[in-house]
Amino acid sequence: MVIQLLESLHEKNQNIEKMQKEIENLIDFNLSQEIKDVIYNLNKVVDCFRKEVDTITKQIKNEVLKLECSQSSENMIAIWNKGRVSIDSARILEYAETHPEVQKFIKSGSPYIAIKSKS
Question: Is 49 domain-assigned?
Fold first, then answer.
């Protein structure tokens, strides 16, 4: 499922890029109202693609979090990262003065996902 979502995300991102280029090319000319309307409609389509990209990105992140491992498709990769570990240094140092067992002061962050294009 994640691989299909990654490919769908790649396709949507490519569509957004193409449409943005078309819009930029149209803006370079002395615009008639008809062309301004086309640009307006293209921008609405781009906004829809962006919403779809956001939805797919959330789905990918949720699935990869469940799998707890990176997932790769032909064009995209969702990289699973274990949550970072941080230490409350001041508290541990204070506690360590009288107690050697400092492990309970280690805090672990939540895992997170990075999604990247392979190209």
Answer: yes
Between CA 11 and CA 99 the distance in angstroms is 56
Residue range(s) defining the domain that contains residue 66: 2-81+112-117
Q: Which residues are within 8 A (CB) of 80 and not within 5 positions of it... i.e. 6 or more apart?
A: 64, 65, 67, 68, 69, 70, 71, 111, 113
The number of distinct structural domains making up the chain is: 1
Collect all residues with Cβ–Cβ distance below 8 Å to 16 and sequence separation of at least 6.
Answer: 46, 49, 50, 53
Which amino acid type is present at position 39? Answer: I
Kindly report, residue by residue over 10-50, the tens digit of the pLDDT: 999 999 999 888 888 777 666 777 877 888 898 899 999 99
